[in-house]
Write a structure and sequence with these properties.
Helix content is 38%, strand content 17%. The protein has helices spanning 13-24, 81-86, 88-109, 145-165, 189-198, 218-230, 249-259, 284-290, 298-313, and strands at residues 4-8, 28-32, 52-55, 71-74, 112-118, 169-174, 177-178, 203-206, 212-214, 216-217, 238-241, 246-248, 266-269. The chain has two domains: 4-178 and 216-245 and 280-295, NAD(P)-binding Rossmann-like Domain (Rossmann fold, 3-Layer(aba) Sandwich); 189-210 and 246-279 and 305-313, Alpha-Beta Complex (UDP-galactose 4-epimerase, domain 1). Helix 1 (13-24) crosses helix 6, helix 3 (88-109) packs parallel to helix 4 and helix 5 (189-198) runs parallel beside helix 7. The model has no long low-confidence stretch (mean pLDDT 97). The strands form four sheets. It has a seven-stranded parallel sheet with strand order 3-2-1-4-5-6-11, sandwiched between helices. Strands 7-10 form a two-stranded parallel ribbon. Strands 8-13 form a two-stranded parallel ribbon. It has nine helices and 13 strands.
Length: 314
């Protein structure tokens, strides 16, 4: 019997890659997305596949009508700095009301459940690198709190459904991820720098560029997500997923400019409120429990991503 995998946010950046891999691995995939930030173009290569079903629905407002599910990957949520400004209410609701509805679906169908949480639950961290046991340093009343706090709430609801209702759930905390199908103008460093570099525009670094991030290529991230769901003994566990190779944002801009063979200058802009000064995952637990770690170097991943964005311009 073919197993059914439901992917909320399945037409988004990471979700669309996950849908494709699950189909390759023999699952029947039900992709749920309201296309508020996802795109039908991201899943156009899957639409004709007999093992793929697309439901354009809003998990907060709509009844999904899903009767059978073996696995539920809950990725639905806008997640970029630009989204925090223009979709704050939608973000708060999808991660609270939406998460509860998807947990209810997991309870009713006895499906295994995975919450895609975020490194943003650590806020501007005082522990470095961040382990899963770190409680975080988050502003609950600021421009990023719609995302940071609603993801923390989503984790809490997942904990409740695991311990009160016996849902077979686990949480992953996704660190910065990049690759093809990233939204072009979403305020993220990689997509911003690449598009500025290949368009001959100045690369805009926020602040002095000394803040750090760690960048994981999307295929590595999807492999980690699938392993977190499928590995035995992961019920009730939390895993950091990301690339522990850390870069200053200024150095990332220089690297992208070099790989893209761009003549663009680097300029500096204001530093966003509550933007973390450093971010790097401790992935010891994922290595041990899931036998997972990133395989694609940042340089190789950037080459692939730059090629993708160039193909959009041609």
């Amino acid at each position: 019997m073919v197993k059914v995998a439901v992917v909320t946010g399945g037409a988004g950046f990471i979700g669309s890659h996950l849908c494709a891999v699950l189909i390759e691995d023999g699952f029947r995939v039900v992709c749920v997305d309201n296309l508020i930030t996802g795109s039908r173009k991201n899943i156009e290569q899957l639409i004709s596949n007999k093992n793929f079903e697309f439901l354009q629905k809003d998990i907060v407002k709509d009844s999904l009508g899903i009767k059978k599910a073996d696995y539920i990957f809950h990725l639905a949520s806008p997640a970029s700095p630009y989204d925090f400004q223009v979709l704050a209410e939608e973000i708060a609701l999808v991660n609270s009301v939406g998460t509860i509805k998807i947990l209810e679906l997991a309870k009713k169908t006895s499906a295994k459940f995975l919450l895609a949480s975020t490194s943003e639950v650590y806020g501007d961290p005082k522990e470095h690198p961040q382990k899963e046991t770190y409680w975080g340093n988050v502003n609950s009343f600021g421009p990023r709190s719609c995302y940071d706090e609603s993801k923390r709430f989503a984790e809490t609801m997942t904990y409740i459904y695991i311990h009160k209702y016996g849902v077979d759930g686990r949480v992953i905390r996704i660190f910065n991820t990049y690759g093809p199908r990233m939204q072009k103008d979403d305020g993220r460093a990689v997509s911003n720098f690449i598009n500025q570099a290949i368009s001959g525009k100045p690369l805009t670094v926020n602040g002095d560029g000394n803040q750090t991030r760690s960048f994981c290529y999307v295929s590595d991230m999807v492999a980690g997500i699938e392993k977190a769901m499928m590995t035995k003994g992961t019920k009730g566990e939390i895993f950091n997923l990301g690339n522990p190779e850390e870069y200053k944002i200024f150095d990332l801009a220089e690297k992208i400019r070099k790989i893209a063979d761009s003549k663009s200058k680097i300029v500096f802009g204001p530093y966003p409120q509550d933007d973390p000064k450093q971010r790097k995952p401790d992935i010891t637990k994922a290595k041990k429990f899931l036998d997972w770690e990133p395989k694609i170097s940042v340089d190789d991943g950037l080459v692939k991503t730059i090629e993708y964005y160039r193909s959009l311009k041609s």
